[in-house]
Amino acid sequence: FNRIADLFIAKATMKLVILLWGDKSELSREVLDKVSVFHYQEIIEMGKHSRELLIDSYDARKLYDYEPIRSGDVATLIYTSGTTGNPKAVMITHHNLLHQIKSLWDIIPVKAGDRFLSMLPPWHAYERVLEYFTFAYGAGQVYTDVKSLKVSTWHIEHLFSF
């Protein structure tokens, strides 16, 4: 995160970062002074008490007048791997993202409580869509990689036992 944090801060009006893993103490003080950083689990806990806590945590209401979201507005950025140069941001619109989520629903009817096993990194385009898909329908997601997941019954049962 520290590697691209300066780019994000310089180029965007980012006010909030949500960590899926890692320790906030590993982030540089300079980054933490400019951006509110939360672990995903902290966000979940805040949401249990009030959806407004997250917004109030960085006084967004005092800073901005929010405009309605349009389907052509950017919903998320996905960065390319940078194999042919510097990584580049790919803008995914709300329309594009919702179309992909609906298309997945047509193929994979998911229900709340289902779990998905993913071996793609969260910054991968397919993974990003799957994350939004599972979260939109109340499903869970388990992350691993090929090295960590030996194809054995024990590992698979262990991943889905919590």
Task: Provide a short characterization of the protein structure.
It is built from eight helices and six strands. It has 162 residues and is α/β, with parallel strands linked by helices.
Characterise the protein shown here.
This protein is an alpha/beta fold and 162 residues long. Helices cover 43% and strands 17% of the residues. It has a domain of 66 residues. Strands 1-2 form a two-stranded parallel sheet. Helix 6 packs across helix 7. The chain is globular, with a radius of gyration of 18 Å. The two termini are 28 Å apart.
Topology at a glance:
Blueprint: H1 2-11, E1 16-19, H2 29-34, E2 36-39, H3 40-49, H4 52-57, H5 60-63, E3 74-79, E4 89-93, H6 94-107, E5 115-118, H7 125-136, E6 140-143, H8 153-159
Parallel strand pairs: 1-2, 5-6
Antiparallel strand pairs: 3-4
Helix pairs in contact: 6-7
